[in-house]
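On clarity, I found the account of how folds are encoded harder to follow than it need be. Since the whole study asks how a given chain folds, the encoding of that fold should be made plain. The format is easy to grasp once an entry is in front of the reader. For illustration, here is how one protein appears when written out as sequence plus structure tokens.
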Amino acid sequence: MKIAVLSPVAWRTPPRHYGPWEQIASNIAEGMVALGEDVTLFATGDSVTGGKLASICAAGYEEDRSQDAKVLECLHISNLMEHAGEFDIIHNNFDFLPLTYSRLIKTPVITTIHGFSSPKIVPVYKKYNDTSHYVSISNADRSPELNYLATVYNGLDVAHFDFNETPEDYLLYFGRIHPDKGTAEAIEIAVKAKRRLLIAGIIQDANYYREKVEPRLNNKDIQFIGEAGPGKRNELLGKAAALLHPISFNEPFGMSVAEAMLCGTPVIAFNKGSMPELINDRQTGFLVNTVNEAVNCVNCLPVINRSYCREWAKGKFSKEKMVRDYRELYQKILS
């Protein structure tokens, strides 16, 4: 099977630090290569793959800000579509824009919808309902207006996450510094629970960081340590007593939640979006609705079996499972 995997061009595939869509595109591509498939990854020129690499730019527009994002996106998508006839199937991990080419080519396109940035983009998906194949990354993140082929949970490379049976006493916030992700609430939970908090992630909302986060930092109990690459991420997640995930939006998946559990680390999350699908309540973490409920759960962490956390996550969120699920869908589409 000749497979084209379309990744975004914001960051390298796989990303050095942040880039969840790029990470999943990489895991799909490398997983298919491991199964013996003929894979071409369409991504930035500095991307790394065991398959073939096709690119129109040396680096992503978030890593080289001299580039225009829309120009790169148009050149990138058109590059794939002009070679569409060379492939049996195209796996789109790049949102709705590639769909606008899909009726102009004969190669079937399967699109993983990694979330809806706004309800305003749904009409594009809706237009191609009958000729495209949509996959959701959680049952929670589905539009009632769209037809779905399946739900396939994001799959991670289990080998990149070391199990830790004996964590330290700190709590961890790992993600974008943004109101949606609840950085300020994580600080409030840690302060009320009288626990040390480490905060890792990119600052996506500078005003929010300046007004709600920075004034609470003290380089002792509440520390911001910036971005964390794969090695540092593994260490931070594995040594944490728990990951705090007090989101204020209906998150489509939540990569750090699965990553934490793969290290054996339980997650205390606000019960929104996909969280009930990712977390086995009171077994791999706690689903809560308020800061005070989260504080109470910090004291209950000793009841969580960290070995079970890892086994639960391996069974649901491994790269191998995701790739097997996608290959079955490819075969279903082609048959």
